Please model this.
Amino acid sequence: MHPPNSQLAFLKLGGSLITDKTRASTPRKDVLARLAKEIAEAQETRPQLQLVLGHGSGSFGHVPAAKHGTRDGVRTPEGWRGFAEVWRQASALTRMVVESLHAAGLPAMVFSPSAAALAEDGKVTRWDLTPLRLALQAGLLPVVHGDVAFDLRRGGTVLSTEDVFAHLARQLHPARILIAGIEPGVWADYPACTRILPEITPQTPAASVRGSAATDVTGGMASKVAEMLRLVAEIPGLETLIFDGVQPGRVRDALLGARPGTRLFAPPEELP
Model:
């Protein structure tokens, strides 16, 4: 198995963090500006850091995707119109994210899954990552996002940022995947929400991990944890952090090596 690239991290800005998920197409532009500044500060402090940035769709793509059932498949003319609408809304939010990054001095470039990735039954199966690799080598900031994709079995589908990260991680071998949302970590007692799980490994009982309260066609917290646990079990040395990006400085500190929130990893004895 390829060892992780210690200089490479993936960072997801959750849809619940950068949009108001209870109101359709409502960005949190002040939060975007702050997060972009924190990313720029981290890269200035640690110039060798390589980063792939992803973001969720929040109140943009999830609302039309839920209306049209896009994740489950696209097979009718009306469904394809919905597919295009999900793409349009996801792209609109991506443009706002990129403008915030450029305003902070970051050389961001978008690599949209819908333009280059092919899925089969909801999972990415083909994606030529040569341009993205070259962007990293050139010191640019590749941006990916939750998006629609053409699917060999379903016609079309919706890929979450975690789906995209899962495929990229198997090819690019990051050392860390950082998922910044509005929760301080993974709750041990959702929905009471009084205790955070500091660590989760593939052997941790997952019965207490529940879904998200807002509209999220890609499954909410439970699917995020499941996807990331599969990855840390598969890729030796990889760790994932699920934490709160609402606190100023938290994203910057995580990029510089801090471990806020819940850490997902596989101890050596749990690796295959």
Summary: Residues 123 and 163 are 7 Å apart (CA to CA). The first helix runs from residue 15 to 18. The two ends are 11 Å apart (CA to CA). The mean pLDDT is 91.
